[in-house]
Amino acid sequence: MRLIFLGAGPLALPVFEGLLAGPHQVVGLVTQPDKVGKGHHHHENPLKALAEQHGLPILQPEKIRAAEAVAALAELKPDLSVVAAYGQLLSQEVLDLPRLGTINVHASLLPKYRGATPIHAAVLNGDAESGVTIIRLVKKLDAGPMLGEVRTPIGAVETTGQLETRLAALAVPLTLHVIDQLAAGTAVEVVQDEALATHVGKLTKADGQIRWDRPAREVECHLRGMQPWPGPFTFLLSEGKPPLRLKMLSATPLLRSEDQPAGTIIDVSSDGFVVQCQESALQINHVQPDGKRPMATADFLRGRAVNVGDRCAFC
To answer: Can you give the residue range of the structural domain that contains 288?
Structure first.
């Protein structure tokens, strides 16, 4: 079959590589327009670089719904479009353009976590497992019938970034299997249960700020769920010192608790410090001061004194 691939995020690259190595013909890549950062430097798009190596047509429309973009897609005469973390909503015209329609590689166990940040949501909510679902795309967001899924446990200390890497690898054989079924006419579509559907939206940098007035287990999930982006952060407030923006990278929930406001540092040792949360506490194991490298909390304390009674700000 002739395949068009639409993708942009980290989940997309392994799937694109798998399609290129598979038995079907990839006839084009659709990805996001090039981004220009500080100093007018272009951010490298590994999908684009890979497509160039294979001599594939590359489309980077500002709006995939635009008439010129639809016409360019039609010229490729696709049998099937495969979408993975593309980042733009597709019109019905674009969805229906290939002979066999359009499928999407979604990083959750649908109908749970439709929307933009399903991997973040699974880690933030402390879910025991996550997975990848292949669906036929319809106009309603992530609501199309399911064509296949794969499940995996979420590790006890796994971050969003680490889970995304594993899910991307799991997505490859599943996607190829579903495409083979579509080619053979043996694919089975399972309608999603709308009563079980949940939705998750986009995150902002502000979402990374840690709320210490939650149970320690929820705060620890937040630390893992916000990595690598937007990054879990707080402001360390010590008497006589300016506030320090500090990323909290790993922590251990403790059973202990003291009658102190949430965010108060209740213990400091050579190994690290402990922050009071709601009815429990959290031992901070790894941090990253603003503008510096990640480090063990013990190393951080060698360069900055932290005392019982100091506070981690939230609001």
So the answer is: 205-313
